[in-house]
Give the backbone structure.
Amino acid sequence: MSKEARPRALAETEASAFARAIHISARKLNLVAQSIRGLPAAAALNELAFSHRRIARDVRKVLQAAIANAENNHQLDVDRLVVKEASVGRAFALKRFHARGRGRSARVEKHFANLLVVVRESEEEKA
């Protein structure tokens, strides 16, 4: 009587984590996401740990969640994980106003973004 299970969108060697409504513009978040794309998971965690940007903390949490999902849910080897994808999208914007001189007002938009991190297990190097 229940509906059918949705087929898995990712490959068997991949795991993901998703964060919704992070309070930062997608443009700024993408700068941090760019710095970890294609890196091994351990190197990406180090990159985020020593980044000076505030949002790096949130990106690091999402990456750690993706690594935990790979280990616990899909039994992947943590030492061979690579950041396959770190995609950023716009979520929504809160519209506020700022009082200006002479009775005027200015619109202020407070942007939010979504972040998807996909890690995959790299193939063993065949020597």
